[in-house]
User: Fold this.
Amino acid sequence: MFNTFTGNDACKLLDNGAQLVDVRSSAEFSRGALPNAINLPLQSIMSADKTIDRDKVIILYCVTGARSSTAKNYLEQMGFENVNDLGSFRNYNCE
Assistant:
């Protein structure tokens, strides 16, 4: 399925208090991440309640979009709402 969620969509949501979640490994995250991102590696997604606020909009990203897409499916199955998949960090264009 084609991802219609854009970088502009992400910027608007972030301006309104959304949380940006990086699902890359902690090693990848430590080498650089988007501003104010939370690191929740895909392999740790089942512990999302310890890291992510269910009451806020969620924006997921990784390198290519594969892990963020998988993470979105897991989170939705776990009952999280308002989960958005930015895909690759390269789609981020907020100033």
User: Anything to note?
Assistant: The first strand starts at residue 19 and ends at 22. Residues 65 and 87 are 4 Å apart (CA to CA). The beta strands are 19-22, 38-39, 58-62, 83-88.
